[in-house]
Amino acid sequence: MIELFGTPEALHRYAALSRSASEAGIEVSPVDGEALAVLADTVQPQGIVALCHQTDVPLPDALARGPKLVAALAEIRDPGNAGTVLRTADAAGAGAVVFAGDAVDPYNGKCVRSTAGSLFHVDVVRAPDPVAVVREARAGGLTVLAATGYGDADLDALADEGALAVRTMWIFGSEAHGLSEAVLEAADLRVKVPMHGRAESLNLAAAAAVCLYASARALRDFKE
Question: What is the pTM of this model?
Answer without folding.
Answer: 0.89
